[in-house]
Design a protein that fits this description.
mainly alpha; 168 residues; single chain
Amino acid sequence: MQVFRIFLNNFYNPVSLLTFSAPMQEQQRTTQRFGLQQVIIVALLFMMLGTALELYLLDHYEDTLQLIPLLCIGAAILIVLLLFFQRTALLLRIFKLVLAITALSGFYGAFLHLQANYEFEQEMKPTAKGWELFVESLSGALPALAPGSLIVLALLGYSYILLLKQNQ
């Protein structure tokens, strides 16, 4: 009985509790990171496939410049699939590069859409100037902010890389 009481006294000792609870807390953090990693990769894949499908359905491949987002998304999907099987430092660097190019293509696409809408609005309303023309350009025939989804896609991909690095 005395041995049991000593064991219980040590068990309820705050230092002992920290020793026993630390592995459980680390396991809980790992489980949470793994769950977050799954959510991010599913969101990333859903966004990549959905954006690629939408661009395809909108015939966003008629011009060479229109192929840029499709090529970026295709490369990103390929690298994500490769990362499922083998996580190397080289693949992660290539993925970062593809994500950076994807984000830049999002900015460039927004510029191109806005420029095309601006030129169209100038022809349709020659008297419009300044802010009015800019606002009309934002709501023109081409969705000026739609390429921003490529920026969000790149940010999701980069957050996936950060989680992979934390889990290593």
